[in-house]
Each structure stands twice: as structure tokens, then as C-alpha cells.
Specification:
alpha+beta; 8-stranded antiparallel beta sheet; about 20% helix; 2 domains
């Protein structure tokens, strides 16, 4: 089961146009398309007559025409035409879903329509700031349950083995993690002091020598993952306002996990950073590095998914799994509470 009364990324905004785009979200088949006024509509991808996917039909103005017998549905899911008969069947209705376009993504509310609340979208400070750079981001389809992804994004320790040429750096194995919990998520973090800058960031920081480095791994319901890195000259980090230290480099990776089904996930992301706002070469470098790292994660997590799904003996948890275990408990409680409502 999945948490439904929340926003998930359904697609990148640029991927939805004046055409029918099928997506599978939380085990449901949905069709998305852009209305003539630019808004995005989302309907169950099935005609109520014989369940032919509406995405196999065609778009007529703002209505979808089913490719089997021509029933037409507006963006609310109401049938507005039945060419084979004079009377439109009153029960010819397709479920529709609220959508919002923000931060370059189309968000969809998969639960109860009257509970859809725009204020529940994640906040992205400085998104429109001319002083901050931003990467193109991307989409990755991964053959694993989305909770293996949130586990991974609450685990700073894995970078030492999975990302040896990018995010790894000395000191992580000797620095304890701090865990903070909230009603809707948690943060796993630590400051690693007086160590070399990791390879991925080495050409980006604006100072020479060793650094103090913040690893901030945050996950909020349902599956918004925020990785925040701060680099300051050695000896100047570790405070609440360290991001304002002279020459501090701040990189925030926004990661949005959308469950496709129990065995597949769609991973959307982009990076946001406090330097080089107009340098396209830097943005490209960061994005290519992120893609390489995420593909390293994909190889590991797809194998973990199969191993855990087909296990014949019990697995164990390590101390580094504390954040992931807590988040799974929070998710389980939240789903149970939603089922009772």
C-alpha cells in the first residue's frame, strides 16, 4: 500500500504537452495531457465501457476520444459525447486527479480530491533567486520499491563504497550521525571536520585546502528527499549559520520518488547551488556527475530489491540504518491512519 493523500511527481513539465501521455503511479494507470489553456489534466487511463486505455485514443480540443467507440470525456472525467447512441450513459465517468505544476514538475494528488492542498507541496527556497544555479535534473526509472530509495537517501555512509570517485571522502567512518525526527519525516546529518573536499565538489568550492563538510540527508512524507551539503574552509563549519560563512559552498539535491508499483519507481531530481548561476558548463558538469552517481545507486538498489524480496533467511540492520528504520515506521503509521479515515 501507498500513502495517497499527498503530492507525487507525475512527470517533468516539459514531458506533458498537447498529446496523451500514459503514466503508472501507485499501481494505477493514469493519462495526462495539457489543456488548451496550458493546465494539466489527469484521468484514469481506462474507458468505462471496455477499459481500453484512453491514451490509445485521441485529443479533440480538451476532450479525450476513446479509440474503441468514440466516447468523449472532458478533463473532469465526465462523458460529453456518445456517438453510437442518443443518450449519454449517466455512469460513464472516469476518475480525475488534481494536478499542480511547480518547480518544473507536474504534481498529482492520488487521494481524496477534497483533501488536495497546495500548501502541502514541498518548499524550495531560492528557486527563483538569480544568485543560485540550477541543473537540468532528470528522470530515472529504477526496478526497485521506492522505500529502498528513501533508505539509500537516509544513509550518508554508503557513499564511501558506492560513490568512491565522486562523493566519497575521508572521515565519514569516524564521525557519528545525528538523527532528528518530525511529524512528517526526519533528518540524518553530521559535520565532517578538516578533511579533503570530495572529487565531485573539488572544482566547485571557492576556497583552497581542507574543508568542514555537512552531510544533511532529509526525507519528508511521502518520499521527498533533500540532500544538503555545505562546505566551508576547515575550522569554520559546524554552526547553525555555517552556510553564511565567507566562501561557503552550498549544494542541495532535491529528489522526488514516485512509486510505480511494488517493484518499480520513478526518480526525479535536480541540484540547486549558491554559485555560478549563469555558468552552463558548471550546471552540465553537476548534472552529469549526478546521473553517474544515481546509476551507481540504481545498480546496487535493484540488486538489493531482488535480494530482499527473495530472501530465504532474515536480514539484519546496522546502526547506520536508524534513519531508514524510523522513516519506514513513520510511513507504516501514516498509511494505517489514512486507511482509518
Amino acid at each position: 500500500m501507498f500513502l495517497e493523500n499527498c503530492w507525487y511527481v507525475a512527470a517533468r513539465g516539459e514531458d506533458i504537452g498537447r498529446h496523451l501521455t500514459p503514466r503508472k503511479l501507485l499501481k494505477r494507470n493514469v493519462v495526462l495531457y495539457r489543456l488548451e489553456n496550458g493546465a494539466v489534466a489527469a484521468l484514469d487511463d481506462a474507458c468505462p465501457h471496455r477499459r481500453l486505455p484512453l491514451s490509445k485514443g485521441q485529443l479533440l480540443g480538451d476532450q479525450i476520444e476513446c479509440g474503441y467507440h468514440g466516447l468523449q470525456f472532458d478533463c473532469s472525467g465526465r462523458c460529453v459525447a456518445a456517438p453510437t447512441q442518443s443518450r449519454i450513459p449517466p455512469n460513464a465517468v472516469v476518475k480525475s486527479y488534481p494536478t499542480i505544476e511547480r518547480w518544473g514538475f507536474v504534481w498529482i494528488w492520488m487521494g481524496e480530491r477534497d483533501r488536495a492542498d497546495e500548501s502541502h507541496l514541498p518548499d524550495i527556497p531560492n528557486y527563483s533567486s538569480p544568485d543560485w544555479g540550477i541543473t537540468e535534473g532528470g528522470t530515472l526509472n529504477i526496478r526497485c520499491n521506492y522505500l529502498w530509495l528513501t533508505d539509500n537517501l537516509l544513509d550518508p555512509s554508503h557513499v564511501a563504497w558506492v560513490h568512491k570517485t565522486s562523493f566519497a571522502a575521508p572521515g565519514a567512518d569516524k564521525t557519528e550521525l545525528e538523527l532528528r525526527t518530525f511529524d512528517d519525516g526526519l533528518i540524518v546529518s553530521r559535520w565532517i571536520k578538516n578533511q579533503p573536499v570530495p572529487p565531485y565538489y573539488a572544482s566547485l568550492v571557492k576556497f583552497q585546502g581542507k574543508c568542514d563538510r555537512l552531510q544533511h540527508y532529509e526525507v519528508r512524507l511521502p518520499s521527498t528527499c533533500i540532500n544538503r551539503s555545505i562546505f566551508t574552509p576547515a575550522g569554520s563549519g559546524g554552526q547553525e549559520d555555517s552556510e553564511h560563512v565567507d566562501q561557503a559552498y552550498v549544494m542541495i539535491s532535491y529528489n522526488f520518488m514516485t512509486p510505480v508499483d511494488d517493484d518499480n519507481s520513478a526518480y526525479y531530481w535536480f541540484q540547486h547551488y549558491n554559485t555560478d548561476p549563469d555558468n552552463k558548463a558548471v550546471a552540465k558538469q553537476l548534472n552529469q556527475g549526478a546521473i553517474a552517481a544515481f546509476n551507481e545507486d540504481r545498480e546496487i538498489l535493484e540488486a538489493v530489491h531482488v535480494g530482499m524480496r527473495d530472501q530465504l533467511t532474515p536480514n539484519i540492520n546496522l546502526g547506520l540504518d536508524a534513519g531508514a528504520v524510523r522513516f519506514r515506521e513513520l510511513m507504516k503509521r501514516s498509511i494505517a491512519a489514512e486507511q482509518k479515515d
